[in-house]
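Researcher: I'd like a structural prediction for the single chain below. Treat it as a standalone chain; there are no partners to consider.
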Amino acid sequence: VEDEERLLEVIKQAAMEGALVLYTLADPNMAESANQACQLWGVQCANILAPTTAAIATHLGVNPSGIPRGKAPLTKEYFRRIDAIEFTMKHDDGALPQNLHRADIVLVGVSRTGKTPLSIYLAQKGYKVSNVPVVMGVPLPPYLFEVDQDKIFGLTINPVVLQAIRKARVKTLGFSGNSSTNYSRMDHVKEELEHCSRIFAQNPRWPVI
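Model: Treating it as a single chain, here is the predicted structure.
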């Protein structure tokens, strides 16, 4: 609801239908208008935002601004972040490697080293991120070595932690411990990490995190 006229229309409709009105209006003037209109037309209502706002304001020792966040202007920075998030989601887990040159950051690592969560986090900061999985027996895409090597970062992880993460993943997928593949076996986990470390050593311009 953007203005008082529309607010009154909604409350009047609620009165005609015998409906309950729950509102979360940050603007105190709009909230008061809603309360008065509900009383006037006999509509049961509740300002469900007010108690929470008051508690937070008291705890922090500040006064609420009363300005709805929805009215904040859509800036260039906002659209840059949206564009970055869309790019990152489309280029997850090695997808569209021919577009690696368009990424601001490229993350490389074995499965379950946190490539996707970190990619999304960075995208929310406005960076376009691609991530490339390291899989034994599968060559890395040639595009990876054609882009600016200074924007590539390697991800590694403690093998014990990685095994625990992979075991949880296998369980989530519905596989029993006995039927799980090499994916979560410690010897395989260590072998993958060692393979990945050799790749990082061959590419010293990639910082390893």
